[in-house]
Amino acid sequence: MHPMLNTAVKAARRAGNLIHRAADKIDHLTVTKKSHSDYVSEVDRAAEQTIIETLLEAYPSHAILAEESGTQGDSDFVWIIDPLDGTTNFLHGVQQYAVSIALMHHGVLTQAAIYDPTKNDLFTATRGRGAFLNDRRIRVSKRIQLADALIGTGFPYTNFDHEEAYLAIFREFMKKSSGLRRPGAASLDLAWTATGRFDGFFETGLKPWDIAAGALLITEAGGMVSDLNGGDSFLKSGHICAGSPLIHEQMLKIIQPHLTDALKA
Ligand code: IPD
Ligand code: CA
Ligand code: CA
Ligand code: CA
């Protein structure tokens, strides 16, 4: 394993174990609301601290972009961190959440680790070296037709600007795919697309920490990741469509006619 990925895995497991231990006391946690349906608990913050400490201990000069504490440092190497992706699930005792850590070097994603502590699923990728679930190589789905495809998504619940377009796209996938799922942790939706559990995934308004690690997993698993218009601005806009090459192409055909100007980036 690449030494930088090794460090990311160490950080993700530490944070995951901290989250797992805290899952028994969700009713006693301090929780605040950042915006509509965006909660943050003391566990999110503690997990983030653990991750940053672990990464900076190994690489003190690297920069950080983390959901709860923002940016620190200035470097060609930037760690992009979601300490607890799926906070709403976590706070309700729904076992679908993960730690997501990616490394970007000169603007290119090079390492990814996503750890699901409830299932002990560790998803990893290094640019050019494939994607793995635990020790097993993973690849995107082989399904050919959208009609047979299971599509993951997430609702635009923190930003209702895209509601109408989203619902129109949702309605069409409801009719034209074999099913839609909204598990509630974008990093795992992407990891599950990398393993072929989902044939494709789309969502609007995500943040770099929701997407970065999952995007590298998918490309390393042979899949495609783009913005909703087929371009490459998904990390910046947070509007994302991903899947196996065949399903991704069919998804874009459904999505594109519904896009507003704001969703085209
Ligand atoms: C959220 C989850 C969710 C997505 C939201 C994200 P958080 O992340 O990834 O699936 O739909 O947009 O904000 O806040 O639980 O880390
Ligand atoms: Ca959040
Ligand atoms: Ca998140
Ligand atoms: Ca989070």
Summarize the structure.
This is Inositol-1-monophosphatase. By secondary structure, the protein is of the alpha+beta class.
Structural summary, described in words:
The chain is of the alpha+beta class and 265 residues long. Helix content is 36%, strand content 27%. It has eight helices and 15 strands. It has helices at residues 3-22, 42-58, 87-92, 163-176, 186-195, 208-220, 234-237, 245-255; strands spanning 31-35, 38-41, 63-66, 70-72, 77-85, 98-105, 108-116, 121-126, 131-133, 136-138, 150-153, 179-181, 200-203, 224-226, 240-243. The strands form three sheets. It has an eight-stranded mixed sheet with strand order 4-3-5-6-7-8-9-10, with helices on both faces. A hairpin with a 4-residue loop joins strand 7 and strand 8 (121-126). The longest helix has 20 residues, at 3-22. The radius of gyration is 17 Å and the shape is globular. The mean pLDDT is 96. The protein binds D-MYO-inositol-1-phosphate and calcium ion (3 copies). The site of one calcium ion has 6 residues, from strand 5.
Task: Quickly list its features.
IMPase, Inositol_monophosphatase-like, 8 helices, 5-stranded mixed beta sheet, 265 residues, 8-stranded mixed beta sheet, alpha+beta, binds calcium ion, inositol monophosphate 1-phosphatase activity, D-Maltodextrin-Binding Protein, domain 2, binds D-MYO-inositol-1-phosphate, single chain, Fructose-1,6-Bisphosphatase, Chain A, domain 1, magnesium
